[in-house]
Write a structure and sequence with these properties.
With 471 residues, this protein is α/β, with parallel strands linked by helices. It is 34% helix and 16% strand. It has helices at residues 3-22, 56-68, 86-95, 136-158, 234-239, 266-280, 292-297, 327-338, 344-351, 357-362, 374-382, 392-405, 423-430, 453-463, and strands at 29-34, 37-43, 76-82, 99-104, 129-131, 168-169, 187-189, 200-206, 216-220, 243-247, 257-258, 285-289, 308-313, 409-415, 440-442. The strands form 3 sheets. The chain has an 8-stranded mixed β-sheet with strand order 7-8-10-9-12-13-14-15, sandwiched between helices. The radius of gyration is 26 Å and the shape is elongated.
């Protein structure tokens, strides 16, 4: 095979490596070639797949064996951007590959000549040809840039006493540079017990009331939004003299994003919010919730009822496991399962024609690549559906609290055009909340009601009245 053909196939392997980097994996890619035709590809995916064997070469070998219907790959060649390790080299020899071609050498774990050379063992019952150094500079540069950027991120974050965990990603500040109408100072916490060192972002803005005299509007967002959702409501609350606290759930906004979907659970996110409320010692709270902000947020007040004065509830629900989930939500969950990388900006544009392109794009800013989107992929499946699901028991307890023990004021605002958690769902929720009056229906609003938030905030300021400081 000529040098040009080697180069061409290695370029294809480099494309796989770049996809791995975009997903937060070490950038290594591989392709399997048979009779001059690519029959399989693979990229590093041990983090994404929760699989220590999911190196690019192994992924490609598995795909090739499936394509040929045979675990023997005698007449095949494998191209990989980095010298294979001992595990991958052994698999290649077991597959009886004709030839292995790699790009950059690996002086730490390379098993094709750098540390050991398994391909040179004459005692083995199969000999695979070996060639290294094809596009070595390009392959090496991709790896060097990946680790350089990772070290730079870690150094930059360590300056703020929030070092980045190895199993998490952090959206660069530059990604938020063009976000419109979001001028507030970011605040961070990483030492809450349930965070385990992950960095949580939140807004904390106060009006002119003396400390403790005003209300605290605790604004909780849902999936796939972030605290940007409250940008038109926050100024109204602050101008009226109140405090606003708006956190980004872990996995969203400016908060850290665990690479593994398995991090996320109802209980973990609820506990983080409880600890945040305790840490900030919030009182006179008006709980402002929508979507997952309600699924989680509606379970919070019963843990410390004295902290809460009011509830502003928008399109959301309690998922108790003993009642069917709404058909609109099930359709949304199915769409997410089929299209986990759905276009977030387009989602907002479709339901909110009054938004500008820049405003819609702001919702995509936290997610520069698929590696940052573990939370958006897994959250639809985390909504409790059966009585034994995580979060179902505490949601049933919350239902009892709202129905029997709640003594605060409640204002319900509903986006009429929401196909997921619309008026029928909210009317059912209203029946579960003691003292909740008829909902205020916003005929032009959809699921993300806060995009009509200024009017809602103005109504809320008039509806809720600060009382004596809660104990």
């Amino acid at each position: 095979m000529g040098t040009d053909e080697h180069t061409g196939f290695m370029q294809l392997a480099l494309l796989q490596a770049r996809e791995a980097a975009a997903s937060g994996e070490v950038p290594v890619g591989a392709v399997v070639v048979r009779q001059g035709r690519v029959i399989a590809t693979g990229r590093n995916a041990p983090i994404d797949g929760h699989d220590p064997t999911a190196h690019a070469e192994i992924v490609a070998l598995r795909a090739a064996a499936q394509a040929l219907g045979n675990y023997r790959l005698d007449d095949c060649e494998l191209y990989v951007t980095l010298e294979p390790c001992a595990m991958c080299s052994g698999a290649m020899l077991h597959a009886r590959l004709k030839r292995v071609v790699f790009g950059a050498s690996d002086p730490k774990t390379g098993a094709a000549g750098s540390v050991v050379n398994l391909f040179s063992q004459a005692a083995l019952n199969h000999q695979t040809e070996l060639q290294g150094g094809v596009l070595a500079a390009d392959c090496g540069a991709l790896l060097q840039e990946f680790f350089r950027q990772r070290r730079a991120d870690q150094r930059r974050q360590s300056l703020h006493n929030h070092p980045l965990r190895d199993d998490a990603l952090r959206t660069p500040d530059e990604a938020f540079a063009d976000v419109p109408d979001y001028p507030w100072q970011p605040r961070y916490l990483s030492d809450l017990p349930s965070l385990g060192g992950l960095r949580l972002h939140y807004l904390d803005e106060s009006g002119s009331h003396s400390p403790g005299a005003g209300l605290t509007f605790l604004c909780l967002h849902g999936n796939p939004a972030w605290s940007y959702l409250y940008r038109t409501m926050l100024p109204v609350f602050v101008d009226a003299g109140h405090r606003v606290v708006a956190p980004d759930l872990i996995g969203f906004g400016k908060s850290d994003k665990p690479k593994k979907e398995s991090f996320h659970s109802f209980s973990v996110h609820r506990q983080i919010l409880l600890e945040l409320i305790e840490r900030l010692d919030l009182h006179n709270i008006v709980l402002v919730v929508q979507d997952w902000g309600g699924l989680l947020g509606l379970t919070l007040p019963m843990a410390a009822p004295g902290r809460y004065k009011g509830l502003l509830v928008m399109n959301t629900m309690l998922a108790t496991g003993d009642a069917p989930l709404p058909a609109g939500f099930l359709a949304w969950r199915e769409m997410c399962a089929k299209n986990p990388g759905f276009d977030i900006a387009r989602l907002f544009a479709r339901g909110n024609p009054q938004m500008t392109a820049a405003q819609c794009a702001a919702y995509s800013a936290p997610f520069p690549d698929p590696g940052h989107r573990a939370a958006t992929r897994v959250f639809p499946a985390l909504v409790p559906e059966s009585v034994v699901d995580d979060g179902a028991t505490v949601s049933r307890q919350a239902r009892a609290f709202w129905g029997h023990d709640w003594t605060g004021q409640t204002l319900m605002a509903v986006g009429a055009k929401d196909p997921v958690l619309g008026l029928a769902v909210m009317q059912a929720l209203r029946q579960q909340i003691r003292g909740c009056g008829e909902p205020w229906v916003l005929e032009d609003a959809g699921h993300f009601v806060q995009e009509h938030g200024q009017a809602i905030a103005e109504k809320a300021v008039n509806f809720f009245r600060p009382g004596p400081t809660a104990s």
